[in-house]
């Protein structure tokens, strides 16, 4: 526990795990085997920058290897530490199990504030960090496959893939050593927005179940729902953008590092993002009213709260003041175990991180499979699918002619029906299916066990059950 009685991030994850495991009938010892982190590697390396040698500290933690490779992002942040990386690696194990991605759990971190470095310096640092991990097989298509997380993105992933290829010149599967690469460097369409898109699909699925919606004291669909988003980075931006432009939701607050913007009529997400890109924060952005105390805005009235920045922002100090009836954890660990208990008692429904932000690893899984199969999704079937659809359209047109033009097709039906699915459509369909199926597996446990009062416990139970089955199949 920390000094204020608040559990650390890793302790929070363990407490949540324990709550679920206590309701399961696991063989003696297996519970601990699943919970503990297998290994954490710490590396310190020097890079010559600006006329001096600067030393950096990085971590790669492997929580479980019941499936290999182990999978999990690499985070660049100034205060990354071992406890945090281990908590994130554990979450990856449960996340992958919940969405049935055949991976163990892993995570990496580098203590660095990327905003302090030029692009070419970040490349040097990333290459050196990757080198240290690659030479110990902690980046490897068969053993450990990183992805982007806070502070990293497509560019860093492309650099890591290139570094691996330089060190493994004859490995035909080299590109599968990392996911989240840009499409022109072996990536997949739809990966950049995958986590935010997954948050949208998760909410859409939640709102397909009126019983669940009622538990949060809400009704109807996403249309018109007032949403607060914290963190307009990769995950928060895409979630907010899709929810406001495709689902009719209203983004009333955007909270960033330097404060928050409020507009009860709805913020223009793209305009706010462009402002942040130009000015480095939300202050003075004309899209809404500025509040210097951003954290306070987590407590504003809304229908849905989306924390999409960092861990621990909803804690024992502010949990009682949170008014949102529904919180979806787009970030990892935004609600501490103590706050989780307070919120549950108040009837708040929490869609937990291990499910809510699993869109990223789901599409990473598709990218990894694409890299290993060396062919773009849809390349073989698309035109054949279109040809079969053309047959039906031709036949309908022939019948129509025969009947003297009695019926006509809706104007864009032909165009839409004839269009075969490309990579992006297939990725979206696979992601949507994954998010729906995983939610249904959680809600089944939520509704069928009297002792299970929340989606998080249900999600952990599904995940732990699957990891346990996998260990049992190995004879453990
Ligand atoms: P990012 O670096 O792209 O964006 C983070 C955003 O949060 C930035 O805009 C930053 O300014 C803001 N932020 C940071 N500290 C803040 C604070 N104290 N208050 C308000 N805003 C703050 O990171 P990301 O990739 O969007 O990741 C965000 C969260 O989602 C993390 O918890 C990460 O682990 C999780 N996540 C990311 C992915 C992914 O694919 N990128 C996948 C799963 C989970």
Tell me briefly what this model is.
This protein is α/β, with parallel strands linked by helices. The protein contains 16 helices and 13 strands. Among the domains are: 39-187, Leucine Dehydrogenase, chain A, domain 1 (Rossmann fold, 3-Layer(aba) Sandwich), CATH 3.40.50; 194-359, Rossmann fold.
Question: Layout of helices and strands, plus pairs?
Answer:
Elements: H1 9-21, H2 30-35, E1 39-49, E2 52-62, E3 70-71, E4 74-77, H3 82-98, E5 104-111, H4 119-134, E6 144-145, H5 154-167, H6 194-206, H7 210-215, E7 226-230, H8 234-246, E8 250-256, E9 259-262, H9 269-279, E10 289-291, E11 304-307, E12 326-328, H10 337-345, E13 349-351, H11 353-356, H12 359-373, H13 382-402, H14 413-418, H15 423-448, H16 455-473
Parallel strand pairs: 3-5, 3-6, 4-5, 7-8, 7-11, 11-12, 12-13
Antiparallel strand pairs: 1-2, 2-5, 8-9, 9-10
Helix pairs in contact: 1-3, 1-16, 3-16, 4-5, 6-8, 6-12, 6-15, 12-15, 15-16
The structure holds nicotinamide-adenine-dinucleotide.
Nicotinamide-adenine-dinucleotide (NAD) binds next to helix 8 and strand 8.
Question: Could you characterize the architecture of this molecule?
Answer:
The chain is an alpha/beta fold and 476 residues long. The protein has helices at residues 9-21, 30-35, 82-98, 119-134, 154-167, 194-206, 210-215, 234-246, 269-279, 337-345, 353-356, 359-373, 382-402, 413-418, 423-448, 455-473, and strands spanning 39-49, 52-62, 70-71, 74-77, 104-111, 144-145, 226-230, 250-256, 259-262, 289-291, 304-307, 326-328, 349-351. It has a seven-stranded mixed beta sheet, with helices on both faces. Strands 1, 2, 3, 4, 5 and 6 form a six-stranded mixed beta sheet that branches. Helix 1 crosses helix 16. Bound molecules: nicotinamide-adenine-dinucleotide (NAD). Nicotinamide-adenine-dinucleotide binds at residues 148-151, 195, 230-236, 255-257, 294, 308-310, 330-332, 357, 360. Nicotinamide-adenine-dinucleotide is lined by residues 148-151, 195, 230-236, 255-257, 294, 308-310, 330-332, 357, 360.
